[in-house]
């Protein structure tokens, strides 16, 4: 029986165990708009209604968040959607098993290049002001070819973490235009709040990061937004709530109450009439510490692409709840795994697929909210095959054909070492 057959239907709810429930939860987060649901749950009474107190701790890097959750300084954490997958696969420093029963929504990230680099792209390609993400990637490929001919140093791009949606989406965007992310450019880790300053200082030539830092760079006149997350794959999960599996097993009632509180907060965050209030709260120094008017525009999907007045409006740039945005779907975890394999971070094997899928826990989501709050289709489905949910290069991801999917990309890294017989 394959991993796809085992997970294609609904998972059974776990057996509840006796344990000491918690009323006060220490929660780590990074100052980004996609932490809105967690912040709103604490700030506007949704956690209190469920008898919980969320003590939010702002951190500076995803590695810190990962380690502080592993070392029990945090009970739960705002995490990049690939982080639980990487943890279950034992990837990265100090790997510690992590699961997610709740996604914090979709959207909110973008790719920004320096104005100088974007101007060079326009010089080498017939690039319209409203060029698509794919057209921008192909224009960058032409600029890089000219730079190589002149013997120039390849550009340096920032992303937030090796096991991040930003890393995989940046790579996906680059590769779709024919650019090899490991040979044609240099990718480095830059904490989200530092990306705009790093771009302004010339330390990096572009970045992929969550809101509001792309808009901050464009409004400062140092960056040009060339692609949004929705351009690459609209349904891609952005951030999730991470927790240690043993903690979840020991505190089942707490986990259910937390999910109920987050679900209510996500519904509230999705309503446009609440965005003024939400933006003011997020702008506070305790949280994002960015101008409220920028956050408000980001929530509305209203972008200043650059400082020259070019604008774009993305409908539902953030989906905090609609369209089952909070459902932790294992097939999305498997797409993340496919990108880990594509870029040489891990080998493809049946065991690794099973571990990757186990990071996303729809069973805990349904246990808290019921089947009526869950989508009707299977937990593992084909991704990118419906209108409004296409990949930028028109690929379709079928988890049942993982090897063919990965092998079909023209740009990819050499495969990681093959697993031993015990791993298969």
Characteristic terms for this protein:
424 residues, 2 domains, 14 strands, five-stranded mixed β-sheet, alpha/beta, 39% helix, globular, disordered C terminus, D-Maltodextrin-Binding Protein, domain 2, 19 helices
Largest sheet, strands/sense/barrel: 5 strands, mixed
Helix content: 25-40%
Q: Tell me, briefly, the overall form.
A: globular
Question: What is the CATH top level name of the largest domain?
Answer: Alpha Beta
Estimated radius of gyration: 21 Å
DSSP helical segment count: 19
The CATH topology annotation of the largest domain reads as D-Maltodextrin-Binding Protein, domain 2
- Name the CATH homologous superfamily of the largest domain: Periplasmic binding protein-like II
CATH architecture of the largest domain: 3-Layer(aba) Sandwich
Total beta strand runs: 14
* Low-confidence parts: 4-18, 419-424
Structure characterization notes:
This protein is of the alpha/beta class and 424 residues long. The protein has 2 domains: 3-106 and 237-291 and 318-407, D-Maltodextrin-Binding Protein, domain 2; 109-235 and 301-313, Periplasmic binding protein-like II (D-Maltodextrin-Binding Protein, domain 2). Helices cover 39% and strands 15% of the residues. The protein has 19 helices and 14 strands. It has helices at residues 3-7, 36-43, 46-49, 62-70, 82-88, 115-124, 133-149, 165-176, 195-201, 213-219, 229-232, 245-250, 252-270, 275-283, 292-299, 330-342, 350-357, 362-369, 402-407; strands at residues 24-29, 53-58, 76-80, 99-103, 106-107, 109-114, 156-159, 186-189, 206-210, 223-228, 239-243, 302-304, 311-313, 318-319. The strands form 4 sheets. The protein has a 5-stranded mixed β-sheet, sandwiched between helices. The protein has a 5-stranded mixed β-sheet with strand order 8-7-9-6-10, sandwiched between helices. Strand 12 (302-304) and strand 13 form a beta hairpin. The radius of gyration is 21 Å and the shape is globular. Residues 4-18 and 419-424 have low confidence and may be disordered. One of its GO terms (cellular component) is endomembrane system. It holds the Pfam family NMT1_2. GO terms for molecular function: ATP binding. This is NitT/TauT family transport system ATP-binding protein.
